[in-house]
Each structure stands twice: as structure tokens, then as C-alpha cells.
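Task 17 of the worksheet. Students: predict the tertiary structure of the chain below and write it out as C-alpha cells. Keep your answer in the requested format; marks are given for formatting as well as content.
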Amino acid sequence: MSPTGFASRLLGAGALAGAGLTAYAACEARSYTLRRVEVPVLPSGARPLRVLHVSDLHMTPGQHRKQEWVRSLAALEPDLVVDTGDNLSHRDAVPVVCDAFGPLLDVPGVFVHGSNDYFEPTMRNPLRYLLPDDGRRHTDSTQLPWPELSRRFTDAGWRDLTNRRDTVTVGDLTLAFAGVDDPHLSYDRLDEVAGPADATADVRLGVAHAPYLRVLDQYAADGYDAVLAGHTHGGQVCLPGGRALTTNCDLEPARARGLHRHPADSRPGEPASAWLHVSAGLGTNPYVRLRVACRPEATLLTLVAR
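Model answer:
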């Protein structure tokens, strides 16, 4: 075979492999998965509390399969819903998101927003996510109707934790919350929520969209039992086995999704330490709906006695 013929075959094989990987990644981005995790944070003798953690829907009106899957989560009958933001990816998505949540809006819930709730997504080179953060934020695109989303959520009874502390009673348990606006946009106002967590509450939870270390450190130092966040998409395009290459923030890739400790080397009961749950989320940028070794997810967290 001539060198030219060999090169042509090699290029053809590469193109075929690339097309196959793209098709697989597009399919995986629609393979919605429910994960179940136990978190030992409740006082002794307390009944388990079922918390549905949802994040990063990045919803558009045409994503009917995702909407149906989110709607099916109501069958889990959670005691509490925690939404860590990036629900929107389209200016007409607010009613679609609320319709998808459906009966879940009747369940006690708390929420914060992410950058994609504020600004309409644009076409970007996904490989940029693998590069070091240059500090640039796409805040010059069209604003999305996040005030309407906040209103719909709060009208349903969910608590807005945007740079706020709040207390929610679920059954016979009192939950103390602290939440911040999106740290990725530097919208968080940690000084407004900093301070010792409510020692009289049965459990204390910190909430943020993006798990930046400054936020996690503050929550752990203030005595929160666990922190819930999203933003990372679990790495979105991972190595086999789900090993993330990036988190799109300063959290290390080893904790891009799932349940971990913060600080990473701490143990339960140690001062200034907490559990950390990072959701890999349910969506992607609508222009690049691809995932590799990192299925879109929601998580049913069962809080149990310490």
C-alpha cells in the first residue's frame, strides 16, 4: 500500500472513531440516572430524612425526555428538595422547569441560582474547560428571566437561599441553612451568612451552586454538617471509570461528584470539617450535549443518624 493510501485509511479510521465517540457521548448525555447516598448527619434516634438533590438542569423547551424524567422524580416522595442552580438554558424555560418539577414544588425545598440562570448560554469550544481558568465570565450575553424563576419557586413555598440563612422544619426535624449566590460569578456574599451555624437545629446544611474552596472552608469552619453543590457536571467528559479531568472551579477533580469530606483529609467529628455532596447535574450546554463516563444525575440523599 502506498504511503498516501495508508494515510487516507488512517484518517478515515480516525474520523470513524471520532464519530462513534460523539454518538456515544450524545447518548450518554440523555441517560438520566438516579443515585442514592446515605449521609450520617442526624442526631441519634432521628428518623431518616430523604433529600432530593437536583442541579444543573440547563433546561430548554425542547428537551422533553429530560422534562419527563425530572417529573418522574416526584414518585420518590422526598421530604425535602435542594436545588443548586443552573436550571435554565433558554429564555422560555421557566414554565417548562416548573412543569417538570410538578408535585415536587409542593414538597419543602430550598434553592440557589447559578450563572446559567442569569445569562443565556452561547456556543463555546468545550475544550476550553480543560484549560486553567482565565477568570473570564460570559456576562455580556442576554439575561435570562431568573426573577420569574425565583418568584415561581418562592410562591410554591421553596426558600430562596441567595446570600441568606434560613430555617426549615420538616416533620419533627429543624434544618438550619446557609446559602450563597453563584461563587463562579463572584456573586457570593460570604460575609452576609458567615458565623456559627445554629447549634439548636437538628442538622445544618450549606448550599452553593459552585463548590469553590472559600465557600466550603467557611461552611465547614462555621459548623455546617454537610454542604450541597453542583456546577462541575462531574467533569462531564471523563476518563474511563469516571475520573474527572476538570471541575470548572478550584475544587480538585477527585471530588468532582459524589459524597466526600471537606477538607478532603478530614474525618467525621473533627473540628471545621463537613460532608460535601457535589451533584454531576442533569444537563450540559445545549449547544454541546455530550457526556463521557459521567451520566447526568439527580441524587436521593438519605440523611441518617451520625
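Marker's comment: Confidence is low (pLDDT under 50) at residues 13-19. The helical segments are 3-28, 64-72, 94-101, 115-118, 146-155, 190-193, 213-221.
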